[in-house]
Amino acid sequence: MKKTDNSPVQKIRKVAERSLVRSKRKGARPKTRLAKRLSKEERRQSLLLEPWMHEDLPKTRAECKYGERPCPYVRCRYHLALEVKPNGSLSENFHEIVEMKETCVLDVAERGENTLEYIGECMNITRERVRQLETDALQKLRESDIDMMEFVDFIGSAGPQMESYMDYIKYGN
């Protein structure tokens, strides 16, 4: 009779080996890098720097539209390559920044008429997830109290592409 070790350590080792085999198979690598723990002094210094770090970030699309590309503001919420989470960890949204055509999600959106496949590649999600997000966003817009044409007038002159998109939102397919 063969004796097996069912200790918790052995179980964890088996799970780790399985996940290692899976990650090697898919060529995957971890997407999130945990923030290291800061000492009290480092935390105090980072709080002093916090206002300064947000000082140069563009507040609107108009401020960053003609800015430097690739976008140097990795803390910007529209940056495609990295996402800085509230706990300080970094999440890599794209595997190679050098391969990216655009670094700002607003550049991708402004170009317009992108396929779900292309948007998915830019955001590192599947085209099905892009379709789900689009459907959810359109539903929220339809349910909102905001009159879309008034909103478009508020943000500026709407081109023909924007008007056709507003018709799509208003009347559906």
SSE pattern: HEHHEEHHHHH
Number of strands: 3
Tally the helices. Answer: 8
Model regions low in confidence, pLDDT < 50 over at least 5 residues: 20-25
Shape: extended
Main sheet: which strands, in order across? 1-3-2
Rg of Cα set: 22 Å
Helix content: 40-55%
Distance between the termini: 66 Å
| Content-based structural category | mainly alpha
Largest sheet: 3 strands, antiparallel
In percent terms, what proportion of residues is strand? Answer: under 5%
Integer average pLDDT: 68
Structure in a nutshell:
The protein is mostly helical. It is built from 8 helices and 3 strands. Among the domains are: about 55-125, no CATH class; about 125-173, no CATH class.
Any overview of this molecule?
The structure is a single chain. This protein is mainly α and about 170 residues long. Among the domains are: about 55-125, no CATH class; about 125-173, no CATH class. The chain contains eight helices and three strands. It has helices at about 10-25, 40-55, 60-65, 105-110, 115-125, 125-145, 150-155, 160-170; strands at about 30-35, 80-85, 90. The chain has a three-stranded antiparallel beta sheet, with no helix packed on it. α5 crosses α6. It starts with 7 loop residues before the first helix and ends with a helix. Mean pLDDT is about 70; it is low at about 20-25.
